[in-house]
Amino acid sequence: MLPARAGATPSPSERHCCIIEVAEIPMQKERAPLPRHRLFVLLQDSQFQKVTQTFSPMSVSALRCRYAAPVMNSTTRRVVCLAAAPSSRFFAGSPSTTIRRSYAVTSGGGSAAFQVFNRRTKWLQKERAASNPEASRQADYLKDEVANRLCERLLDIKRSFPRALDLGANSCNVARALTRENPDPDPSKPISEPLATRIGELVAAESSHTLLHRDADLPFNNDISITRTVLVDEEHVPFEPASFDLVLSSLSLHWINDLPGVLTQINNVLKPDAPFIGAMLGGDSLFELRTSLQLAEQERRGGISPHVSPLADVRDVGGLMQRAGFKMLTVDVDDIVVDYPDTFALMQDLQAMGEGNAILGREMGAIRREVLLANEGIYRELHGNEDGSIPATFRIIYMIGWHEGADQPTALPRGSGDMNLKDILESN
Fold first, then answer.
1. Phi and psi, residue 221, nearest 5°
2. Is the pTM of this model over 0.85?
3. Distances (CA, A) of 212 to 172, 205, 218, 315
4. Interatomic CA distance for residues 333 and 279, integer angstroms
5. Phi, psi of 352 (to 5 degrees)
6. Which of 281, 247, 250 is nearest to 402 (CA)?
7. CA-to-CA distance for 227 and 203, rounded, in angstroms?
8. pLDDT of 318-346, one tens digit each?
9. What is the CATH number of domain 12-103+112-405?
């Protein structure tokens, strides 16, 4: 599903929003300097508690949250963290925004997968981002945070994993998370050993050589047995069947064209009764940027260009996992909201993360300056915070699935029960 074509008639709400006098809105408003990092903790739905602190970039990984039982809806606990530093440079690239990505159920006829993303463009973006290690590390706050939360789910699986795979390893964020001291964020629990002590060997697989080896000389490499493997493409998993006791994937699957096929390949390389734990961007990620950029282009150019990358919805993921053959599925959602000083800092960080627009058929070249200025004004008008910063929402979909095993619990056949639930409830 692509954005509306140029010249499309805007909806009544869009026409109302387009009357904003964006030409007279300056790029930077006079406001107090923002702290380097902010932490916001949002509770259920619209109720929230706001906690503001200042952190150094290296202490961001210490921010943790203990989760409630996963549920299949978008009203789960939401945690917001990590504001970026103000940017003085002008951004001239295409941002990543989101729409829902639909998946059709097809028969296994060997037909080619529907192509949405340019995989070579995505590889070039990762290589370019990693070529500036300092800026790339500074923009890793989101990937580090998601990797930490992903690995926390291993605390509930009481077993060791002789051989594990990190598919789409990026800069080995998962390996870094596995070596954290006391990974359990619950203060009532005793101090626990790093999760790396339960991993025999971690195979970190990534298509970008520069990004994969960016942190190969950092100290965390001494605390875990890690083998770096450069892939031709993450869409092809070149490992033997039943060769891994665990597969992890953090913030990589949302750029896959054939997501059902890749999930099937992941299930194939798992041993019986072995888990897959993944995290990907999905749903309404960056909805603030999507809406403001569409309104800005509609107002300044009379149409909308495809700056939008389609993402899977949480309702799709469970079905995709089931189609891939996984058992005992768990899917849950977190919204991570990051405060930025302006839209230029937001888009600059997306570039430094390697998360620029890679959709096929996108408009080449830089976004026009007038559109960027209009986007800045509309974004602040629709979504801006009272302190002058702007929020950006990243919706993270976490999934857990197990390769089928003989010892796994299974549901009894329909109609085999010998007790009536109605009788039990009435007796109480």
1. -65, -20
2. no
3. 7, 8, 12, 32
4. 9
5. -65, -25
6. 247
7. 5
8. 999 999 999 999 999 999 999 999 999 99
9. 3.40.50.150
Q: Mapping DSSP to helix (H, G, I), strand (E, B) and coil, where does residue 373 land?
A: helix
| Residues in Cβ contact with 147 at an 8 Å cutoff, skipping those fewer than 6 apart | 173, 174, 176, 177, 250, 251, 279
Q: Compute the distance between CA of residue 270 and CA of residue 187 in angstroms, rounded to an integer.
A: 33
Phi, psi angles (nearest 5°) of residue 329: -80, 145
Beta strands in 27-108 (DSSP E): 39-42, 48-49, 78-81, 97-101
For 353: left if phi > 0, alpha if psi spans -120 to 50, otherwise beta; the answer is alpha
User: Length of the chain, please?
Assistant: 428
With b meaning 16 or more CB within 10 Å and e meaning fewer, what string describes 70-109?
A: eeeebebbbbbbbbbbebeeebeebbbbbbebeeeeeeee
Those residues of the chain that have pLDDT short of 70 are 1-113, 303-304, 306-308, 361-365, 428
For residue 401, what is the enclosing H or E element?
A: strand 390-402
